[in-house]
Amino acid sequence: QVQLVESGGGLVQPGGSLRLSCAASGFTFSRNAMRWYRQAPGKERELVAAISSAGGSTNYLGSVKGRFTISRDNSKNTVYLQMNSLKPEDTAVYYCKVPFAAYWGQGTQVTVSS
């Protein structure tokens, strides 16, 4: 069955950086697009970034464009989210997801605060 394990979150000051990782198993990772979502307290979950199966195509939420970079390593069944110039409004639980499955992992908490 699909399993997604997110890691790399933490507490960081405004302007700082974090790199999130998502280890995937239970499906053919290299044949599937992947997405990162986030959910802030009291808000709906939103799509942050997406990447095609081979990594050649990416898309971003407007508010993170130019600051976040999604990438993947198909040899490691892992998708990444490099987050730079972090802002307090980036504070949320971040989740990765494979589009065809309803499964959500546990997510990783990102807190941006001084």
The total count of helices amounts to 0
Order of neighbouring strands in the sheet with most strands? 2-10-9-4-5-6
The parts where pLDDT drops under 50 for at least 5 residues are none
Multimeric organization = single chain
Strand content: over 45%
Rounded mean pLDDT is 97
Shape: globular
Which class of secondary structure composition applies to the elements? mainly beta
Strand segment tally: 10
Order of helices and strands: EEEEEEEEEE
The separation of the N and C termini measures: 40 Å
Biggest sheet overview: 6 strands, mixed
- Helical percent range? under 10%
Based on CA atoms alone, the radius of gyration comes out at: 13 Å
List keywords for this structure.
114 residues; mainly beta; 10 strands; 0% helix; globular
